[in-house]
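Help needed: design a sequence for this.
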């Protein structure tokens, strides 16, 4: 360890990782990398990647997410994905990704040997300790991944409690992990609902009737939910109407509806290092920077991944998610959710 510290000091400012990655990207000590060891296409528009994380990886809890970084046309892009594997199998990381955006389409072309940037796992969408005796999991589309991780984790733990997995897909051919879901332990009931074709136990979109059919005891159990916005909204509406919101735990990676008032925009935005200055349009700083021709690093565009964090040298900004206004000098802000409130200077 002492030799490594000495080497790190001698190789400043780049650090030892910059030299190790020239030999093998997986040798880096401080950053986390994942080497693609297997690629599977379960459906035409998804890819399942098995990764071998580097030594800095600390594992994850079922339901958490990781930030995956790739370089596309010279720009580092970061997106959040939930591992689908059991948390008890630390030697590998499984990600199933739907090809619906720039990064996910890039990853859809991945091949064994690719090396991706990873973060440590994050997020609070996790199972409680001790494990509940009754558990309802509701997912739609690729939102199945964190719940699949929970299901596999419970299986590895020998969990005997009653579990219902209610999953929504357009057609039976669109169901991810279909074969595995069909081979569950006796304490697990998988209920498939198809929204655009026959073939599942239930037909159509989520409703209270579906809930009662799948898990008549839902009112007395924890429910974990992940999926597209319409499904999330429908489930929330039912739980809100029955005053069960505290029993519903959700995870989503779709950008929130930000409250933007462009008519109130005033002042000037300046990116100091770039020397670019422009009138404040009232949109989030990331959007304004891109409209001005800048290419700041970013990821989720919804305030989760922190890839677009920059230092605000001066000025006031409003958090478009919370509405809070901050005017501290030299503070870190997230460009994707920060809206200028007057003159603002960014140290970038």
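Sure. Designed sequence:
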């Amino acid at each position: 360890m002492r030799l490594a510290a000495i080497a790190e000091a001698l190789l400043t400012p780049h650090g030892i990782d910059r030299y190790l990655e020239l030999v093998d990207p997986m040798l880096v000590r401080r950053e986390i990398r994942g080497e693609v060891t297997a690629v599977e296409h379960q459906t035409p528009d998804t890819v399942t990647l098995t990764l071998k994380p580097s030594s800095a990886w600390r594992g994850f809890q079922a339901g958490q997410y990781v930030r995956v970084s790739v370089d596309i046309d010279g720009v580092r892009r970061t997106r959040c994905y939930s591992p689908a594997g059991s948390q008890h199998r630390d030697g590998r990381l499984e990600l199933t990704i739907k090809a619906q955006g720039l990064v996910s389409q890039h990853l859809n072309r991945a091949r064994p040997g690719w090396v991706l940037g990873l973060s440590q796992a994050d997020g609070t969408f996790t199972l409680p300790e001790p494990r509940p005796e009754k558990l309802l999991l509701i997912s739609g589309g690729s939102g199945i991944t964190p719940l699949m991780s929970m299901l596999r984790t419970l299986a590895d733990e020998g969990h005997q409690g009653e579990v219902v997995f209610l999953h929504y897909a357009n057609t039976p051919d669109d169901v991810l992990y279909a074969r595995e879901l069909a081979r569950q332990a006796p304490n697990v009931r998988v209920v498939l609902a198809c929204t655009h074709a026959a073939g599942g136990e239930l037909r159509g979109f989520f409703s209270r009737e579906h809930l009662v059919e799948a898990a008549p005891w839902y009112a007395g159990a924890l429910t974990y939910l992940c999926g597209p916005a319409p499904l999330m909204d429908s489930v929330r509406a039912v739980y809100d109407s029955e005053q069960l919101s505290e029993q519903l735990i959700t995870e989503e990676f779709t950008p929130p509806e930000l409250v933007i008032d462009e008519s109130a925009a005033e002042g000037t935005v300046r990116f100091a290092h770039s020397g670019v200055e422009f009138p404040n349009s009232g949109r989030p700083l990331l959007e304004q920077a891109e409209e001005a021709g800048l290419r700041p690093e970013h990821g989720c565009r919804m305030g989760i991944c922190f890839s677009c964090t920059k230092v605000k040298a001066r000025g006031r900004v409003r958090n478009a998610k919370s509405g809070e206004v901050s005017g501290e000098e030299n503070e870190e802000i997230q460009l994707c959710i920060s809206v200028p409130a007057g003159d603002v200077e960014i140290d970038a």
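The helical segments are 2-10, 16-23, 102-107, 144-156, 178-181, 208-214, 229-241, 285-291.
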